[in-house]
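1st attempt posting a full record on here, be nice pls
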Amino acid sequence: MRNLLKVCVVSLAGALVFSSYGLAQTSPQTNRGGIDNLYDKLANSGSGGPAPRRDLTGFWAGQVAAKLNQVAPMTPWGEEQFRLHKNNSQFPVAESNDPIKGCDPLGFPRNMLFMGYSIGRWEGDYTFVVDTVGSDDRSWLDNAGHPHSIDLRVQERYTRVDHNTMEVTITINDPKTYTKPFVITKSSYKWIPRQDFEEQLCVASEEAEYLKLIGDPAAHGTPGK
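the predicted structure (as tokens):
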């Protein structure tokens, strides 16, 4: 299936913080490929020096996908929901029920859509904290299909370490689904002095055509028509 989770850049403007993560795996792993080279090349870019006070503006480059920690042990309800989720890694596209298959919003924290209600505040001069509740429980936490309930509470912490470096930590707290709160990911981003962005949209009609011509026939061993 086409990779619709190219999420290497976080755009931050003023006091409003928007994040997009393609949470791809269930355990930490090293990303490979050209985009990581961009992250490394940006290590010494920009004006450098200390971080400005209460300022996260600009464009930030990270790795292709956030590095994930192991999720906390699930409750019986969480395990039941997880068994119902069929991801694209373990199942053919035709059998998967990943929300991305039909261009449904991925949900938060996997993606910024369906992300609930958020309140942000400064904690000191260099860390912006965002607390989110009310996320749609049809969404998944990651590509592996880890579930969450409507009781999910997510906290994002954006810390500008210096002028060119920002660290983002996401904590999951969902007592209905997991036995304890846990940090699902901690990522580092580099400031991009200049960057051109291309628009990337998941178009439902194109996805349906792809499944009709390629995805479904491939799963069942029959040619598309």
